[in-house]
Amino acid sequence: MASLVLPQLHNFTMAKNTTARTKAASFLSDGFLFATAALVAFLLVWSLLSFFAATPSFSTSSFPDTAATPASCPDTGRGPDPLHDPPDESFYDDPELSYTIDSPPVKNWDEKRREWLKQHPSFAAGAGDRILMVTGSQPTPCKNPIGDYLLLKLFKNKVDYGRRHGINVFYNNVLFQPKMFSFWAKTPTVKAAMLAHPEAEWIWWVDSDAAFTDMDFELPLGRYKAHNMVIHGWANLIYEKKSWTSINAGVFLIRNSQWAMDFMDVWARMGPQHADYDKWGEILRSTFTDKVLPESDDQSGLAYLLLKEKEKWGDKIYVENGYYFQGYWVEIVGTFENITEKYGNIEAAERRLRRRHAEGVSESYGRVWAEQLRDAGGGRGSWRRPFITHFTGCQPCSGDHNQMYSGQTCFDAMQMALTFADNQVLRNYGFVHPDLQDPSTVNPLPFDYPV
């Protein structure tokens, strides 16, 4: 059923949708029907037309939490000071520095970042955990009539999550390397973002068709302190099955470091701008027998580096499956009703979660949720909100969706996921969507809801 379960509401009128249960049930049945094909649905063949479907060399310990502040820039304790950029030379003054992916490699990036933070002490505090989210879409209007509408809502969703957690978002809709189209467009974008944001420890790439569906969840950065990259996947499928669908390259964290600069250069050399592009297609096809695309793609290229160069790259990459770092939408959307009911029951029993509060302090309430959800699990089979729901195969901009499901199924699922997430945002503004299939309708919430 697409309608929310809102327990024990006083004088609260809910919109009803007589077809909602059938639709939600179809999503759940899709999840079972295509369970064996869930990984295959990650195939980037459905993304061809989309713009973007030892100790770490640079660790958080490289940055002090506090730094000496020059007299010319007093530390007011108010956070980063965007008005202060001293005249001292930095790496930005080097005429040889280039932001492009096919330029000469960036060297000594760890030292350059460290020196820049010394020059900008207001940015140094908290630098070890600072994240920049990077996403984007194609530079031209979508072919799918509803594509631009969906991309706008998906962008809003990312901005909402970033605002709640103090994460800035860079949305790019141009090709920084014209030959690196489709899924390869992310690599030059991420490199440019690293250079443009030396104050950020992590660059977080999130595909345009991925939606945050747990607005309270915080990335467990402490888990990744010995790693330089985080991806979603299954180690046994990488190293035992040698499957190119063992990972998903649509969402990843990468530490802003020399390791990352070197890795991005190596990864990008498998792309269409390089003379060895066709050769890499053959290598990847011979390495991963389940690979369908004849061309070299970013996902199988990343899997290859994990498999073949484990000591150099793979050992620094954390393969996450303990929670939905990104999850396949077919197995997720049909669970929203059950999740909503369970969360409502927790709120009814926990006074702290019912208290009205400013959006700016939402993270403190997220910690309370974390206490309540210790036994909820984290990934497939869990009843907690999935962190990121990835609409792999739906192609909202081009409309060239995977033939395993219809375009309408994709659209309905996206609407439900985005409305499910929006309810978590609107809660702090005193409203809620009573029906996940009707994003245009909201009702005011009574005091002390849901008691």
From TrEMBL:
Membrane spanning residue stretches: 31-54
Keyword Glycoprotein: yes
Compositionally biased tracts (Low complexity): 61-72
Keyword set, alphabetical order: Glycoprotein, Glycosyltransferase, Golgi apparatus, Membrane, Signal-anchor, Transferase, Transmembrane, Transmembrane helix
InterPro entries in UniProt: Glyco_trans_34 (IPR008630), Nucleotide-diphossugar_trans (IPR029044)
Pfam family, one: Glyco_transf_34
Membrane topology label: Single-pass type II membrane protein
Keyword Glycosyltransferase: yes
Subcellular location: Golgi apparatus membrane
Gene Ontology CC, one term: trans-Golgi network
Region feature (Disordered): 61-89
GO molecular function: galactosyltransferase activity
Family classification: Belongs to the glycosyltransferase 34 family.
Family matches, as PANTHER family: GLYCOSYLTRANSFERASE 7, XYLOGLUCAN 6-XYLOSYLTRANSFERASE 5-RELATED-RELATED
Protein's UniProt name: Galactosyl transferase GMA12/MNN10 family protein
Species, as recorded: Perilla frutescens var. hirtella
